[in-house]
Amino acid sequence: MTPDQKALTEALIAARQANHTLDATPWTDALPDATQAYEVQDAVAAALGWFDGIPKTWKSGGGSRSATLTHAPLPPHGVRQSPANFSDLTFHTPGIEAEIALRLGQDVTPAQAAALDHDNSAALIDAMAVSVEIVDARWQDLATTPALLRLADSQVHGALALGDWQPYAAVDCASQRCETKIGEAETVVREGTHPLADPTWLLPIWLRHLTRHGQTVPAGTVVTTGSWVGVLPCRRGDQVKAEFPGIGAVRLSV
Fold this sequence. Notes:
By secondary structure, the protein is α+β, with helices and mostly antiparallel strands.
């Protein structure tokens, strides 16, 4: 790692341990590319002892099919089953993303990942569930924080609530409805708004990322696939419900 990577890694570790945020300004030029950002991701996770082997739960996604998709492993202490209570965790400026999570039904080797395309990768999935990610950053002003610094910070992940798993079946994404209610605010309703048009579209890219160092991804590995509602602001104590009719629902307390 470069000196800048090492210093950034130490700063992110300290921010997590002390539950404080960082000014991004001194770090603006610390990471020249995504490879170095992922190295910082991995180094922070290793220092904090989050994983033993390949992480079991991931986030992956992007704003469109033409965007570069990004990926981050999710620390297991913050991945919880609905109804989930996160009152024991510290959040700084949390937001809610309503998503569909997918679960691998078989091991995927590097050779298999390399051969995947967007049309055949859904066959690897055995189950799906509604999920809600609480996004939160170790950066003080997320709006002005460079994308690579967000990526290094676990792609600004805070916590994840998972609904009940059900057998995977292709859905009509163009008409799929998503209903999200936060506290006493009106329910936010979206239809056909997945940024990639189909959550399974990211699978080949995500799996090639996970196998890039020669590892086989085990059956049971889970990935969340991008928000249907963007990021909705929330506050400590808010009760949240997200429902995808025909798929399931998630409840959580921030």
